[in-house]
Amino acid sequence: MTDTSLNAGERVAEAPRAEPDLARTLSALSLICIGIGSTVGAGIFVLTGTAAAHYAGPGLMLSFVLGGIASGLVGLCYAELAATMPVAGSSYSYARVTFGALAAWIVGWDLVLEFALAAATIAVGWSGYAQSLMADAGWKLPAALAAAPGEGGVVNLPAAGIVLALTVLLIAGNRGASRVNAMLVALKVAIILAFVGIGVGHLRPELWSPLVPPNEGTFGAFGWSGIFRGAGVVFFAYVGFETIATAAGETRNPQRDAPIGIIGALIVTSLLYIAVAGVLTGLVPYRDLAVPDPIAKAIDATGLTGFALAIKVGALLGLTTATLTALYGQARIFYAMARDRMLPDFFASVHPRWQTPWASQALIGIATALVAALLPIDVLGELVSIGTLLAFILVCASVLILRHTKPERVRPFRVPGGPIVPVLGILACLALMASLPGDTWLRLALWLAVGLAIWFGYGRRRNRNGPDRAIRAGDGDQ
Description:
The chain is mainly α. It is 67% helix and 0% strand. The protein has helices spanning 8-13, 28-39, 42-56, 60-84, 91-98, 101-114, 116-136, 157-171, 174-200, 223-234, 242-246, 254-283, 294-302, 307-339, 358-374, 377-405, 420-434, 438-464. Helix 4 packs across helix 16, helix 5 packs antiparallel against helix 6 and helix 6 packs across helix 18 (438-464). InterPro entries: AA/rel_permease1 (IPR002293). This is Basic amino acid/polyamine antiporter, APA family. Its main location: membrane.
């Protein structure tokens, strides 16, 4: 029987053998931990304060609800695609099968914003909490090594250092990295739950009134437009769940475990975010939360200042796991693109002993460390959000199109409600993108323009002359 005589469902069922070089060691619990580790990071420990102080006020809880709904709609689409096409590459691979090579390149290039820049953003937040702990112990870095240019320094050395250290851990193998991640996630969640539990006993409900502060005359400055602007900003807090989809190619039973990992991680993180937002704005007046460590400030408001140390440690753990999983995801994206000959073969090199894409991981780590060392966190955070939302729109569209063009495919998990969920996911992402500032759109346009220039100057020619991967076998030249 030739490959062309196989139906599409049978070809997808054999997709796990399409990438035999990557070790399949991850379970459903590992995926949930990866999802929690990658989402519970800078969004909850850093951006919550900024979003409450400048955009949503106590309505930050509603912003997280909106962000959670949008993420849930997209997450269901990811679950179907990850179960149907369990390979490395996530939305890049889905776009390759659905829309073709050019769209796949655009998504892959866009995902650099989601993963590599997310890792850099989180690492800068990590540096802030690490330096705060060092100051508590009486240590202080020289100003030149403590912050990026434009923020009073020359290079953010701690941010670059944590990226490089985690890169070494990831190169050494998934099993060890997964265990470290699971332990850190457990500690991080325990500290967050302790914050919520202690904070509930000291709430000042009057701080929640009005829940939606009146608009101050411009879009996004409180009012309901501020709720939506806040949702667009804190959406950064949800983006990590896509890392689970990038890990499908290294999962023992991806058809079953990928949906469990994506949906389970989204449920846990959404509940944590809403609870933390409620406690945070119920302990401190929202205008006072524009600080780098809002949760530590909230604990100070309870009078239990000794617990602030535990909160800083929890933040450090949270930011560590989020950086780890973002670096992991970016390397898998580049690995998949190199296997499709859109990038040099170097990015597809797999270590013979550790069975990890070591070359891609190393280069991503070095580049991300440089970005983390030299760029401020505010610019990075907005770029991550808008880049991710664009990729999410294409994922939802992929579900709609593949349902129509490949109805015979075996789908171990199907998004409920037919086309309703994917369409709502697209609309939700468009609404959140529309709420972001205009200069963020300009940066996205410039980033995509650079990506298109690379594609037409290099990627298209190389891809056209290269072999297709097994997941594309028989799908035609998209």
